[in-house]
Design goal:
By secondary structure, this protein is of the alpha/beta class. It folds into two domains: 170 residues, 3-Layer(aba) Sandwich (Rossmann fold), CATH 3.40.50; 83 residues, Adenine-specific Methyltransferase, Domain 2 (Adenine-specific Methyltransferase, domain 2), CATH 1.10.1020.10. Strands 3-2-1-4-5-7-6 form a seven-stranded mixed β-sheet, sandwiched between helices. About 6% of the residues have low confidence. Bound molecules: S-adenosylmethionine (SAM). S-adenosylmethionine (SAM) binds next to α3.
């Protein structure tokens, strides 16, 4: 019989509550074979997004979760502290076009309202991409989706799962000081290098430049020098190969490209996983 995690024993296992570009749900089936067989200490995820890996693992030690997207992190922080207030707000919302645009234009100050607005727009918009205009205003249109956007049970479980996590906003380099020996660092940056070798694509609020990829490579050197583990996912591209080639393991995985709506980006894409974890696969 499969062993249950602490979260499953306590109640419903929390799952990601957001649709997020580049979400790593697909990686879960490869997860067990990737993790260090001797276990790990603390967990770090500095490109948190929808947190598919964190929710799948639900690590028993401390977790450090962060992202550059301030509204996203504020939502996690508020859910951690007061999910009931967020749910109460969400329950007032309607999945209707006029109502959607009304909420999209609202400027709230209250943290529960802001979190509810973030979740509502993410769940009822056209796609899961977080896109803002030059003034920083979310500008994704209404999605005509039928799925219920108030997942009460799940949001309460998410809140419980986040209780022991340290959640902060900022660049991935801020994770450095917290990383200690035998910790696991999961790195899932935006894939700014396109899959067909023809340049760069921008699919996120902030472009992740080639310079950023080099900075990330330096962070990995620090992780290794501290005796910690890393797992990096990235686009399968020759430029990425050159930057992250460190004599560690490299896997190439193929998956269905699920996000991106109507354009021609759908189909099978290849991704690299780099890791210094030496398990047999
Ligand atoms: C591919 S997504 C992560 C998806 C996530 N693994 C999931 O399962 O949903 C990349 C994330 O990196 C964040 N990001 C972009 N530039 C960053 C930076 N310099 N430092 C930290 N986070 C950054 C984006 O806001 C985005 O949420």
């Amino acid at each position: 019989m499969e062993k249950k995690s602490t979260a499953e024993i306590k109640g419903t296992k929390a799952k990601p509550f957001l649709r997020w570009a580049g979400g790593k749900k697909w990686l879960q089936k490869h997860l067990n074979s990737l993790l260090p067989t001797s276990g790990f200490n603390n967990y770090h995820e500095p490109f948190l997004g929808g947190g598919a890996m964190f929710f799948s693992l639900q690590p028993s030690n401390k977790a450090f979760l962060s992202d550059l997207n301030n509204d996203l992190i504020a939502t996690y922080q508020t859910l951690k502290i007061d999910a009931s207030e967020v749910i109460k707000e969400l329950k007032k919302y309607k999945n209707e076009e006029d109502f959607y645009y009304e909420i999209r234009d609202k400027k709230y100050r209250n943290s529960a309202r802001l979190a509810a607005k973030f979740i509502y727009l993410n769940q009822t918009s056209f796609n899961g991409i977080y896109r803002v205009n030059l003034r920083g205003e979310y500008n994704v249109p209404f999605g005509y989706r039928t799925k219920d956007f108030v997942e009460t049970e799940n949001l309460l479980s998410v809140s419980k799962t986040l209780k022991s996590a340290t959640i902060f906003n900022g660049d991935f380099e801020l994770a450095t000081d917290n990383i200690k020996k035998k910790d696991l660092v999961f790195l899932d940056p935006p894939y700014t290098v396109s899959h067909n070798d023809n340049g760069f694509i921008k699919y996120n609020q902030k472009l992740f430049s080639l310079e950023d990829q080099y900075r990330l490579s330096k962070l990995i050197d620090v992780v290794k020098s501290k005796g910690a583990y890393y797992i990096l996912t990235n686009a399968a591209h020759v430029a990425i190969d050159e930057i992250f080639e460190k004599g560690d393991r490299k896997l190439e995985l193929s998956r269905a490209n699920l996000i991106g709506g109507t354009n021609a980006q759908r189909g099978h894409t290849k991704e690299f996983i780099f890791t210094n974890i030496e398990n047999e696969l």
